[in-house]
Structures are given as C-alpha cells and as structure tokens.
Recover the amino acids of this structure.
C-alpha cells in the first residue's frame, strides 16, 4: 500500500479523481473499506494524496474494469498491480482502457446480475456491495441502474412473491443501494441555467428507491436536482419547488394503497404549483392511478429511455423560453 511518508507532490482529491479516472466518492469508498490508498490529512482535515496514490488508483481502475474484485486486489503492491494489468493487456487484443460497446456492457450487466442475485440469495451484503461497486466502474451509472439494478430489484420482488426470498433480502439489498447512491450521483458542477427539478414521493408512499434512482437519472441528464426523500404532503413539495425555482417535479408511486390519498395529493399539488410546472410520475404502481394522472395532466414514465426523452424535451422548452 501507499506509504504516508512518500516524498512526492501532494494533491487534493479533486485532482486525484481527474488524473486517475476514479470518481472522488469511489476513491473515498475504496480507501475506507479496503485501504486501497492511505492519504495523509492537512491540519484542516482535507485528504492529501501522492503521485504513487494516483498511480495505484489508475491501476486499480483498470484492473476492476477487467473484472477483478476491488476487495481482492486493493492491498496488492504497486508492482504487483502493474504486473497484473500488464499481463492482461498482453493477452487481450484491445487495451484495457477501451470503453466496451453498448452490447458488450449489456452482456457484462447480465453477468453481474447473476453474481448479485447469488449474493442476495446468500444474504451476503459485503459481496453484493463489492459486485455493485465493480459494476458501477465497469458499466457507468446509467447502464448500471437501467440494465443491472432495476432488473435485479424486479427479480427480487418476483422471487419474494414466489417464496424463494424473504422481505429481509429486499431490505438488505435496498440498504446496500442507498449506501452507494453517492457514487452513482453526478457530482459535476451544473451550469447556472441548468433546468431544476424536485424529486420526492407523495404522502403515505414510503419506499425510497424509485425516487432516489429517478433523481440520479435526472442528474445524469444534467438537471439540477433537489432530492427530498419520501412521504411529503403536497404543500411541502410545492414549497420546495418555489424555493428552488424548479420547472418540474418527479414523484415515485410504488404501492397501490390509499387511492383517495394519492388522488387528493396530486390534485392539491397541481393547484398549488399551477399549470406550467411539469409533474412527472413513475414507479411500479403508477399505472393504477392512470385516471387521476390524466386528469391532473401528469406525464407517466414508461421506461428510463422515456424519462430521458421527457427530460430532454423539458430542457429544450426551457432553453427556448430563456
């Protein structure tokens, strides 16, 4: 591992992330969980990294992209990491840093799906977290969410209904996903005129993942997102829209219960925010409320591709109005 006494240049984490190609949040995760690097700290508590740390992170990034588990290679010496990456680059026709094609990444996502489901079935949160971290690096956030995470959650729900899994398996998986949300999020600075959105769930809708993933997907489409969590009444959502000057609100509806509450809240929200603010609704139970969605003028998300299309159209509309 990196020695903290290296006599070399010292860098803050933003520079390290840019030079190594590893997101800042993932650098911190690898440091905290696996001691992949051991930075020193300034008197103010800021992490300070060396050239050797950057070299290690570059090699770890390449090795995990080639399918190695970060938990297995994090503490290898710099020389061993170099040899590992070199031996694989010599045996593989293309350099390891080449981004896989879309079809290749879908195949990789399917492979990770089986590994992740096996970890869920074994009730092994550490293995699941490791597979998730490697998949995020290898696939990118959008493909990870759309082609690995969402199908995995669907399978878990189906197997729970069939009696193969217990509710605790779903809760464990959700907990791991929430712990990694900061890695998935798009933390790059937004333009001052970037479109703004509020994301939440209506009152009595307590499940968070749908809203959280919608917020991340909107951020990846370069929206400035204010994520509010779950179970908020229309008045509070409307207040957040006003405070942030948002042009859209996305709500997740996961369960078809308390029909009158959902209908009341959507009508109330539309009245409070007026006709010019877009209301977008997604979630596995949204289809049960189609009549009220139509009445209130809500856009119902059909897929992630549809959500991206909605976001692009709204952003273009705002640009034309400015």
């Amino acid at each position: 591992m990196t020695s903290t006494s290296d006599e070399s240049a010292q860098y803050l984490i933003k520079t390290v992330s840019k030079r190594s190609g590893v997101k800042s949040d993932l650098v911190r995760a690898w440091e905290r969980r696996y001691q992949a690097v051991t930075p020193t700290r300034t008197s103010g508590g800021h992490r300070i990294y060396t050239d050797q740390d950057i070299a290690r992170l570059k090699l770890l990034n390449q090795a995990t992209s080639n399918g190695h588990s970060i938990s297995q290679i994090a503490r290898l010496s710099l020389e061993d990491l170099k040899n590992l990456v070199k031996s694989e680059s010599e045996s593989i026709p293309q350099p390891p840093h080449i981004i896989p094609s879309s079809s290749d990444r879908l195949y990789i996502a399917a492979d990770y799906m089986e590994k992740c489901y096996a970890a869920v079935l074994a009730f092994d949160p550490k293995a699941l977290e490791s597979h998730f971290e490697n998949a995020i690096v290898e696939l990118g956030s959008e493909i990870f969410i759309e082609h690995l995470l969402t199908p995995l959650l669907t399978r878990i729900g189906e197997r729970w209904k069939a009696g193969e899994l217990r509710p605790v398996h779903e809760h464990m998986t959700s907990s791991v996903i929430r712990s990694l949300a900061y890695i998935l999020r798009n933390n790059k600075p937004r333009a001052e005129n970037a479109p703004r959105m509020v994301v939440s769930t209506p009152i009595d809708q307590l499940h968070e993942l749908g809203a959280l993933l919608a917020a991340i997907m909107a951020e990846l489409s370069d929206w400035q997102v204010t994520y509010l969590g779950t179970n908020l009444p229309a008045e509070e959502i409307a207040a957040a829209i006003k405070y942030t000057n948002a042009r859209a609100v996305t709500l997740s509806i996961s369960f078809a219960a308390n029909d009158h509450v959902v209908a009341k809240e959507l009508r109330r929200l539309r009245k409070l925010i007026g006709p010019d603010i877009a209301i977008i609704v997604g979630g596995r139970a949204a289809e049960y409320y189609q009549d009220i969605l139509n009445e209130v003028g809500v856009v119902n998300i059909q897929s992630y591709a549809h959500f991206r299309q909605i976001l692009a159209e709204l952003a273009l509309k705002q640009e034309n109005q400015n």
About this structure: The chain is about 60% helix and 10% strand. The chain has three domains: 10-91, 102-184, 196-321.
